[in-house]
Every structure is written in C-alpha cells, then in structure tokens.
C-alpha cells in the first residue's frame, strides 16, 4: 500500500489540475467589439481638438449693434404752415388787450435727434435784445478786490456769506448768478444746488457762469440769452409783442444760425437736424413756420405790422 504522504501528493496534483487559471477566468471579447487602431486615433484627435477649443473659455456671442431710440416725429406734408408775417398777424390777434412789453414771441425748434444723446446748449446775443431786466449776483471771497470789482460792474449782491444766506432764505431778486473760480469750494460746501438747480441758476463751467474774468462775463451775459435743448426741442424768447417783422426775422435768423453751428460741433455719431420751427406767444398757440417772410395776402405789407396799436 502506498504511504500516506504519497496519497496526499496525488490529491494535491489532482486539485491543481482541476483549478482554472486566471486567463481562463477572463471572458473572450468578440472581435466586432474591439475598436480598431484607426478608430482609437480618430477619438484621440477629437478629444484633443475639443480640449484646445475650450482653452479660451466659452465663446462670446457676437455683440448686437446698439439701436438708439429717437424722439417722435410727425409728417409735416399735410400740416398748415405760415409765413412769419402771417403768424405775427394771428398771434397778435390772440394777444389783443395785453401789455406789449409783457408778451413775448417764443421760437420752438424741433430737432430730429436720439434720446439720451448730447444736447444743444449755449448763449446767443440777438440783434435786438428781448430781456432788459438782467440782475446779476456774484459769489466771490468776502472782503476781496474781486468783491469790489463785482459791485462796480453792477452786481446787486456779491460775496459768499451774504449770497448763500439770501439763496437759502429764498429772498433774492437776481436772475443770474456767477461764481468766481476762487469761491468754487465755498459753493460746493454751501450745498445750495437743490435750490439753484431747478431755477437754472446753478453756476457751472458748461454755462460759462464759473469765471475768473468778471468783466468779460458781465459784458457777455448782459444782452445775451441762454437756451437749452429739452426732449428734442430748443425754446427761447426771440422778441416782444411790439417788435417789427424785420426785428423778429433778424432775431430768428441769428438764433437759427447759432443752433445749426452748435449742431455741427456735435460728434457725427449723434446725428441732429432741424425738423420744424414753431412760433408762439405768451398766451397764443404755436404756429409752424414755412421759412417765408412776406404775408400771403397781397393787400397787407410787412410795414403794416410795425405797430401793435
């Protein structure tokens, strides 16, 4: 009989022979599921291209061209328009019984312009002045030679404390306010912009009311009229009721030339053009002008309108 050790060795050999190897445990993959070398290379190329395309981050959408909104316009082809003399006749008829010096002719210039763009704003000296009641005050250092100069030039009030007190109390008679450059800091500290701003009296460099040359500014301001574009319209008084047609025509011509000059100074990216010119009076309606001067009625001459009596 075989020994015990021989029996055990035989059993060990039988168990090893019956045990499957690691290779035998791995299932065989069908050939149609195994990717080819060409497919693997193409896949790697796609991943590489996608990786490079994402290096710069997500692509930004192309910017849309900004579209501006313009103020509303009207078709004037069917609208009745008047010559200057005809408009004066009708407007004077409305103002019958009114004091001639208290009634003003006003021109409204409608512009073709976009909303939110730069506005037309300046001063103009008309051939025949309309306002003769200019009253000026000057903000300048107290007790300085500048204060004495302002008083000599005709300022009704000059200095800092006195002017600021009058403004805050609301008891002042001036309708124009200048500020010398040496008092700009005092003007900011006084915090009177909320009072002066709504009245159009706040001194600023844009309106040329902050100056270091009072004499020149006084000379320019007296007899000059300010205008400013609001909502696409520029308005300004161009005459009194007693003005002759020739005086009114010269004032309107000067005013229109100044506006066109201001428009030409504005950047080309903000197109502006004169669309309509309307003439009105203090209590009268607005009549659209057609750029003609003479009356349409042959029986009436411009000389017949030189007097309001």
From TrEMBL:
Keywords: Ribonucleoprotein, Ribosomal protein. It comes from the Eukaryota. GO terms for cellular component: mitochondrial large ribosomal subunit. InterPro entries: Ribosomal_uL1-like, Ribosomal_uL1/biogenesis, Ribosomal_uL1_3-a/b-sand. GO terms for molecular function: structural constituent of ribosome. Belongs to the universal ribosomal protein uL1 family. This is Ribosomal protein L1-like protein.
């Amino acid at each position: 009989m075989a020994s015990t050790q021989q029996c055990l060795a035989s059993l060990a050999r039988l168990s090893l022979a019956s045990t499957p190897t690691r290779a035998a445990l791995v299932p065989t993959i069908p050939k149609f599921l195994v990717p080819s070398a060409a497919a693997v290379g193409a896949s790697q190329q796609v991943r590489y291209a996608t990786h490079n395309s994402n290096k710069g981050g997500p692509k930004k959408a192309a910017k849309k061209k900004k579209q501006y909104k313009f103020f509303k316009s009207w078709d004037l082809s069917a609208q009745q328009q008047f010559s200057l003399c005809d408009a004066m006749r009708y407007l004077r008829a409305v103002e019958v019984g009114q004091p001639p010096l208290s009634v003003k002719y006003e021109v409204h210039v409608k512009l073709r312009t976009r909303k939110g763009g730069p506005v037309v704003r300046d001063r103009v000296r008309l051939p025949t002045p309309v306002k003769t009641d200019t009253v000026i005050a000057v903000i300048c250092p107290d007790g300085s030679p500048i204060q004495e100069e302002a008083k000599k030039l005709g300022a009704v009030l000059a200095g800092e404390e006195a002017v600021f007190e009058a403004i805050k109390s609301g008891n002042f008679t001036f309708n124009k306010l200048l500020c010398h450059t040496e008092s700009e800091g005092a003007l900011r500290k006084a915090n009177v912009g909320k009072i002066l701003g709504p009245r159009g009296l706040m001194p600023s460099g844009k309106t040329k009311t902050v100056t270091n040359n009072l004499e020149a500014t006084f000379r320019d301001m007296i007899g000059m009229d300010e205008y400013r574009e609001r909502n696409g319209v520029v308005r300004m008084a161009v005459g009194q009721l007693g003005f002759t047609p020739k005086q009114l025509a010269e004032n309107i011509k000067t005013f229109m030339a100044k506006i066109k000059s201001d428009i030409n100074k504005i950047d080309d990216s903000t197109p502006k053009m004169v669309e309509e010119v309307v003439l009105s009076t203090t209590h009268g309606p607005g009549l659209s002008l057609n750029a003609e001067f003479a009356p349409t009625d042959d029986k009436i001459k411009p000389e017949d309108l030189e007097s309001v009596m």
